[in-house]
Design brief:
binds zinc ion, about 270 residues, six-stranded mixed β-sheet, seven-stranded mixed β-sheet, Metallo-beta-lactamase, Chain A
């Protein structure tokens, strides 16, 4: 365990993925739950897609690293789960889908599925910090998103796709012109999670059909997911198809039991 204070600059790690597009991660959140943070710069506005845990200030980091701060900055959460939404409170302007706007503005840590242990944080963000005190803070969204909304960065337009199933307000952001899809937890290169409190298997199946439709139409070339590495259209198609193929079989048997355990475990955290 490292000691002493850690700077915002040191807390985050970044990698340039393309011109104006950066992948950012929380260096000391060493967990399978560590989410990807994306920065897409635009000519008139910069966009942060997901905000991490919020243990250190992401906008301060972006300014110090010279990656943002020159233009208006908007932070969009692909959904309100803690690993994506915890850092939103550091931003002046935040947007989230309508279905989860209430959870965010209440600071609802049950819907945020807040689940963090000391062992996942390899260096303390501040002296005396403890995971047991961690909460997603309430944030009033400046903008409430609906399917079909366009977020304009000036030279880039991102369409909001409502893709419920993993959570009720999950969205993907689609840059149609460049074939980019910010997919959040709807699709990443790992097994999809459909057993959380606001998950819904039939919604997820429908969302996967829509993802396959985007691939069929040639509208996605690169997926920028909520966890793990980027991947291409073929992988997106097979992830979605595999989910649909299995949704009615093994999931049905295990979902009820797992959901029951998850609810008990989450309620045991005494957040609500
Ligand atoms: Zn999630
Ligand atoms: Zn996640």
């Amino acid at each position: 365990m490292g000691s002493g204070s850690v700077s915002d600059r040191d807390w985050f790690w970044q990698q340039k993925v393309a011109d104006g597009l950066y992948l950012i991660r929380e260096r000391y959140f060493e967990s399978g739950n560590r989410a990807n943070i994306w920065l897409q710069q635009g000519s008139h506005q910069d966009l942060v897609v997901d905000a991490g845990l919020g243990l250190r200030s992401l906008p301060a980091y972006l300014r110090e690293a010279g990656l943002a701060g020159f233009k208006p900055l908007l932070a969009v959460a692909t959904h309100v789960h803690f690993d994506h939404s915890g850092g939103l409170h550091h931003f002046d302007r935040v947007a989230v889908h309508r279905a989860e706007a209430g959870a965010l503005s209440r600071g609802d840590n049950f819907e945020a599925v807040t689940w963090l242990s000391d062992g996942e944080i390899s260096r303390r963000p501040e002296p005396g910090w403890k995971a047991s005190g961690y909460r997603v803070r309430a944030v009033q969204p400046a903008q409430i998103l609906d399917a079909g909304d366009i977020i304009s960065l000036g030279d880039r337009q991102l369409a909001v796709l409502h893709m419920p199933g993993h959570s009720r307000g999950s969205i993907c952001l689609h840059d149609r012109e460049h074939g980019l899809l910010f997919s959040g937890d709807v699709a990443y290169d790992g097994s999809m999670i459909d057993w959380l409190p606001y998950s819904n298997v039939s919604d997820y199946t429908q969302s996967c059909k829509e993802l396959m439709g985007l691939v069929d139409s040639g509208l996605v070339h690169k997926v920028l997911p909520g966890h793990f590495d980027t991947f291409g259209a073929e992988r997106l198609y097979s992830l979605a198809a595999d989910y649909i193929a299995n949704a009615g079989v093994c999931h049905k048997m295990s979902t009820t039991a797992v959901r029951c355990i998850a609810n008990l475990a989450l309620r045991g955290n005494n957040f609500w």
